[in-house]
Write a structure and sequence with these properties.
Blueprint: E1 44-47, E2 55-58, H1 61-72, E3 76-81, E4 84-90, E5 93-99, E6 103-107, E7 112-119, H2 120-123, H3 129-148, E8 152-159, E9 162-166, H4 168-175, E10 185-188
Parallel strand pairs: 7-8
Antiparallel strand pairs: 1-2, 3-6, 4-5, 4-10, 6-7, 8-9
Length: 189
């Protein structure tokens, strides 16, 4: 028997969500869909033995999915969620709201990498030109930060739940950017 239960969330326009109950969650067929289950974007809890505190609170379901992938990767020894706060400049102005790369990963072979998690929609131009410009400034700062510490920096770009792995140079080439002047000051948290 097919389960036709719906999410039931009433959206701002007064219409009910048409997604199935539990769509893209750990409990398909019951409750709200993944878009409405967590009304606070900072309330997606993830537990892992690879995290120093044993858990973190993700900002998106894509981040939670990425952390699950790290948990199942036998090459990953440990990771930290948003461990650094990096100052960056955007259009020549120092931004007070620091950039926090999503994940720092340490592999069994000793390599360390910063990972930023984005969706392809967040990376596309010209649809999100302002977002692109901010991401460019953030990623450039993270790339310089990583090089100073002799660690890697990559961007996991989600498209239909598959991940494309981009370097900062890939990001620049795919968007046709050549460079900008960025000043950074780093605060370890």
């Amino acid at each position: 028997m097919k389960n036709d239960a719906k999410c039931g969330h009433i959206k701002r326009d007064g219409q009910a969500c048409k997604l199935s109950a539990g769509y893209d969650t750990d409990h398909p067929g019951t409750g709200k869909c993944c878009h409405h289950e967590y009304p606070n974007p900072y309330s997606i809890r993830h537990e892992s033995k690879k995290l120093p505190e044993g858990f973190c609170v993700c900002r998106s379901r894509y981040e939670k999915n990425a952390l699950k992938r790290l948990d199942s990767d036998l090459n990953v020894m440990r990771y930290k969620y948003e461990p650094y706060s990096i100052h960056y400049n955007y259009n020549g102005i120092a931004i007070e709201d620091n950039y926090k790369p999503d994940v720092w990963v340490e592999y069994m072979d000793g390599r360390k990498t910063l990972i930023e998690i984005k969706t392809r929609a967040e990376m596309s131009i010209p649809r999100n030109e302002d977002t692109y410009e901010k991401n460019y400034a953030k990623f450039r700062a993270a790339d310089l930060f990583a090089k100073q510490r002799e660690i890697g920096f990559i961007i996991w770009v989600y498209y239909k739940w598959e991940i494309e792995v981009w370097s900062f140079n890939d990001f620049c080439q795919k968007a046709g950017r050549l460079g900008t002047r960025i000043c950074i000051k780093v605060i370890d948290s």
